[in-house]
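S1.2 Input.
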Amino acid sequence: MNASTPPRIAIIGAGPGGLICARILQRHGVAATVYDQDASRSARDQGGTLDMHPDSGRRALREAGLLDEFQALARPEGGRMRLAGRDGRVLLDAAPPESDAGAHTDEGNPEIDRGRLRGLLLDSLEPGTVRWSHKLAHVEPLAAGVHRLHFAGGATAEADLVIGADGAWSKVRRRLSGATPVYTGVTFVETGLDDADSRHPVLAALTGDGTMMALDDNRGFIAQRNSHHHIRVYVGMRTDEHWYRTAGLDLADEGAVCDALLKEFTGWGPDLLRFITDSDTGYTNRPLYALPVPHTWRHTPGVTLLGDAAHLMSPFSGMGANLAMLDGADLARALIDSTATTDDAVRAYEGLLLPRSAAAAEGAAEGIAGAFAPDSATQVLAHMTRNH
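S1.3 Output.
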């Protein structure tokens, strides 16, 4: 970086993209502070499993000097994909690529739990890098690209570069764009199975070692292996955004939610229905949102975006966390390598970010449209057969 005084860099959000950006900057002697609204690293569940792609997520981890640590935590077998019919019969079982010796090649996408990945990234940072309990309220522009950050509770901080890594409902994005996430038409109801191999052997066998999908007629089940013998389940349906209100349903009433979901899946195989009835974790409603495609903004000195703040898309891209980490790595590298100003580095980064995120978002929109369609079973089987 070509600056007589190092810029004050504030990263809003301690997700994979923000943390990888901070880690790479620190490896090259560039300070950054991460602000996150969570009270601590363990304040909430970080979600399910992620597959790390060689040209994005794993590339970022390599740039961060963390690839070996990642490989020690990852599950190569987690890249296995299984497709079942609505009767529960397995139609296709696709294993990740393997070498002749049986070792997984760099072409595979090994899985890691979100919580483990976050822990790996947090542990790699210098103490005090992340400021917990800092919920951003708004960003105030000052002079010459400097911004003042206002946090709930009254705390403030000033920064020469604000990096919005604050997810779907980003407060930083409001400084750049008027775009807001739009409901995709699909809702997941999340549930889960604990000690699945011993307590739910039939469902564990149906899920296999990686991810199992059963999709048909605008509905479906997605079951994912997590660590510690846990299976995370998403019961998906194309429905109204507030379907439970229309049904007069209280989401806190687990029995009523279970009955409502069973009604939605009338005629599906009994083993698949057990993903609903045998829940150990209750039910969490998760409507899926996406930003308009393409989402662009006019370059504004002193502020930029990465990850979901920049390109929120449906999980059917398979690229969300991978893109966020690639964004973070590319932004850090642009700042480190720049022989000009911080602003020039951000311009160069946005020149990479915007076209690739638009292409990925288009693919994600096509993916969710195909997965939750009247003929989704046929579409998904054809897609998986072509790609495996």
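S1.4 Remarks. The chain is about 35% helix and 20% strand.
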